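[retry 2/3] 3',5'-cyclic-nucleotide phosphodiesterase: previous attempt timed out, resubmitting with same input.
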Amino acid sequence: MKLRVLGCSGGIGGRNQRTTSLLIDHDILIDAGTGVGDLSIAELAVIDHVFLTHTHLDHITSLPLMIDTVADRRSQPLTVYGTDSVLTILRNHIFNWAIWPDFSEVPSPEKPFLRYQSLPVGQSIELGGRTITPLPVDHTVPAVGYRIDSGRGSLVFSGDTGPCDAFWRAVNRIGNLRTLIIECAFSNRERELARVSRHLCPDLLASELLKLERECDIYITHLKPGQVELTMEEIALCLADFSPRMLQNNQIFEF
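[retry 2/3] 3',5'-cyclic-nucleotide phosphodiesterase: success.
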């Protein structure tokens, strides 16, 4: 299994800033932020599955445009996975005819461009030998993280979250954990904003990682573009024992 980072920034600005999206092999997306826009039309057309962590704009912004771009090149609907709450928000506030057409009814309800599939927390789905499982997190809107398991190893992506004991309990049960990609959206000087918005800053992340009972490589994602250097300096100071690295666009993981 190969995972390619299409976007991992907490915002835009500059040629290297793309918001969250991860491409698994050639046909699965985890989130659909602005990084999806760097794919060619041919690459977009072969994506069959999109797993959403939550519906904040930086994680879904390319989804409506992607469907519109490649619908005429596909013979089957694109499947979008999420919890019931996530899919309800998507239906009510994005694919609602006011913001974007309801592609679950176009060109017809019998043969739509888009289909939804509910995936509750803790319930796994297997796609061609790849198992994907939503994990509990704590954010301001309904949200999940994901475990991606090749059978030989697992990568965990936190999505957006603040402190969450349930997340760590789930992670600590993963016997073949290799990689943890976890957010750190704010610097310590904005700790209160991180707390209110249910994100992490370096001090909060340091406290959370004390709950991790598995050895794995740790990568930091969702850094705010204007605070990358400051936040990574703070992470280096308070998380040195964990040797975290900053996630990079176009980084590839094989597991």
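[retry 2/3] 3',5'-cyclic-nucleotide phosphodiesterase: The chain has one domain: 2-254.
[retry 2/3] clearing retry counter.
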